[in-house]
Amino acid sequence: MTNTAIKDMTAGSPAKLIFGFFVPMVFGLLFQQLYNMVDTIIVGNYLGVGALASVGSTGSINFMIIGFCMGVCNGFAIPVAQKFGEKNFGELRKFAANGAWLAIGFAVVMTTVVCLLCRRILVWMNTPTDIIDGAYAYIFVIFMGIPATYLYNMVSGIIRSLGDSRTPLYFLVMSSLLNVILDLFTIVVLKMGVAGAAWATVISQAVSGIACLVFMIKRYEILRMTKEEAAPNGNIMKILCGIGIPMGLQYSITAIGSMVLQVAVNGLGSMSVAAMTAATKISMFFCCPFDALGSTMATYGGQNIGARRLERLGEGMKAAVLMGVAYALLALAVLSRFGDQIALLFLDADQVQILGQVKQYLLTNAMFYIPLVLVNVVRFMIQGMGYSKRAVLAGVCEMAARAGVGFLLVPYFGYSAVCFASPCAWIAADLFLVPSYLMIMKRLWKEQGVTLGTAKRNGMMETLRRLRGFRYGH
Length: 474
Known about the structure:
Distance between the termini: 36 Å
Order of helices and strands: HHHHHHHHHHHHHHHHHHHHH
């Protein structure tokens, strides 16, 4: 298991390696979104539209906080992937250990702060009075589970950095099934309301994280560290924070725009909140392949930049973009044909107005999935290469676009403007990311004293591997 699960992405066909890593990632994210959808389906059908709106109104603040946790963990895993590419396994273990120490510290501080402030944030967000109590009951429990979020994402991030995307999938499947069972038990049997759905999510993620940790410790010899390797190291922690915090901020900054948009939607009333809740859940499910491509490219970029296989980065980028575009066209076709039927999973057929708004949101977003492909592939490639600060700036572009729609357009155009918020954000991010990636690649080739055209003509793969003094992570 140890030898076959770990995958070296610095040699072989980039397209085959990316696809092989991508497929388990897709299934993992689909299962993750599946149990998020099950939460929403059970809440909507057993507790009603008001409860559905309560859960949905917390979506942006949930994304801001939990997204930061996930981004930080993904950032901590990038140096692990780079050291794996270098075949420097001693340093790899030090980065893994110090990432774990930092994750523990971040989890304690964040849990304390956000639990104290979450009701004030809901009030600031103009959450409708008829759903604010339910929103607080749900999000407070989710925030209590921040340590479980750090645990699972830190462990799975380290495992993926070694090229193994299958193992996290197995534990996500387990978590998904457990979450469904606990949803029904806490809501239908124990009558815990929306808080029951939150407890089901937290408990299932905690169980998955603990099981994944035990598995990693027992099965991955490459991660078995000495006492010296496991000790806290200030210099390593500084490097990890320099990559992890910007990646976490990228999610949070993007979420600020979503929060501004949520405030605008809240002003449209609980029916619009319910429509956006159902539409967002469906959209997130269909966007899983884009997220999987992003995570794949972070590992691919990290390993190849560590191995100094610069020529493979562009090859991998092309392969990933082609895969993403093919899926984007397929998703558009499916949502165009079946979008309204899918919405019936969350809502009753007699809720005609809400169903119409759900379909409008889904189709509008699906028409712009190709820009979303570039957002995920280019951003995560840049992060894997060590340029996480540039990804933060892309997040700023997304935030500005979503906030602009919320402030300027929603008050005048209503729900129709809400549907265009994400497409505007994706395009804004691409306008920064694509030129930024091209500039980075040009700089890296220039540092080698080689033009991209010359490298392609002369096949300098092995020469580049041997070059010393390669710098990355500017």
